[in-house]
Amino acid sequence: MNNIYDKKQRATLIVVIVTSFITTFTGSALNLSVPAIGTEFQVSAGLVGWIVTSYMLASAAFSVPFGRVADITSRKKVLVTGILIFALCSLAAAFAWNMKIILALRALQGFGAAMIFSTNIAVLISAFPESTRGKVLGYSTASTYIGLSAGPVIGGLCNHYFGWRSIFILTSVVSAAVFYMAVRGLPKTEKKNEKIDVDIAGNVLYIAMILCLLYGLSAFSTNLLAKVLLPIGAASAILFGRHELKTENPIVELRLFTHNLAYTFSNIAALLNYGATFAISYLLSIYLQVVMGYSSQTAGIILVAQPVVMALLSPYAGKLSDRISPFKLASFGMGLCAVCLLFFSFLSESFPLWSIIAVLMVAGVGFAFFSSPNTNAVMACVEKKDYGVASSLLATMRTIGHTSSMATVTFVVGMYMGNTALAEAEPYVLIKTMHMSFIIFTGICAIGTFFSLKRK
């Protein structure tokens, strides 16, 4: 390879690493600010949880459509546009004057994140040879976990000394920098399949399916509209499946799932793993601050134990998956996650802090051995021409898992706490809520481990 191409590889790796970092950093940093935002705007625990859920809803609904758009037009253009939207919404959110504005901007930010999630992995692995795929995926995954690590620490410091708005300002600055880097450094991508028609009906049905199902689940216990939208989402899912099997150019190639069980089980494992584990930091941040009485700064330092271990081990796990079956590594990691979730279902007001930190570190090992090996396993199941579709679907599995995780928390909070504000809730009610949430997540993770072990 010539030097110019080597520079493009480096630029691609840096852009993917930074975008992987900033999208996760924002969410993990905001988790610690949830009590402060809820107190400032005097809203219920259920509503303030939508700061995370609204972002995830938009990300899940639009990742696959944008993945298809990227394959037809240009992955670089879609990625760059997503970064720009993410940056602008972050800046605007710093000046929001009520909860409705924050939720709207977080949804738009999720719209931009969908463009990032649906293209960055495809852009990355297209720029590097197959022999180093696990290694570069490990770097990307490590960056994701560094974002999770830095979020609680930096977010806790920002919230403690400058207020929650400073988190959005910091995010916008980093996003603006990587936007400039992406415009200047990413290699140009040629248009592909220009004559292929866009599956408009499939896009509409897919977006309706995701929004109705996930909103219906999130607000089922508190909103009458959600009870109506949930069955509409289920009906949309059936119509979407029938339409995609008949159309010539579907946005989701469902036949890929029926003809490749390893690919199918890898995506199911990703969906269930992220669905079971994403809300850990959200629940524990509330537990540490509201139940245990720690400041957001201290809670952030405690929570960093998990993602630090992930960040340290992910490059090694990714590199290892180039030599050892990624299916076995991912199954091992998911099993560890299930054990840790079970442990957290026994939280109490007198739980020793050292044990929480220890279990967070073990969970970090589990995450590291699941994430990059599972991504490697998914990409190994498809040909290079299908990288865009495969990475988009995997991103969607992750995002739907994240959204479902927060939707589950929102649902359980609605059952146990109703419209009670976090600061006003009794500790025993919060702990009871967390017990139920972690029991549900343990079951989901155990099922995911079963699917992961079924792969050959």
Automatic annotation (TrEMBL):
Residue span(s) of domain Major facilitator superfamily (MFS) profile: 12-456
CDD domains, sorted: MFS_MMR_MDR_like (cd17321)
Cellular component GO terms held in the UniProt record: plasma membrane
Entry keywords, A to Z: Membrane, Transmembrane, Transmembrane helix, Transport
Residue intervals passing through the bilayer: 12-37, 43-66, 78-97, 103-124, 136-155, 167-186, 198-218, 224-241, 261-287, 299-317, 329-347, 353-372, 393-417, 429-453
Location(s) in or outside the cell: Cell membrane
GO molecular function list: transmembrane transporter activity
Keyword Signal recorded: no
Topology in the lipid bilayer: Multi-pass membrane protein
Name of the protein in question: MFS transporter
Species: Aminipila luticellarii
Lineage: Bacteria, Bacillati, Bacillota, Clostridia, Peptostreptococcales
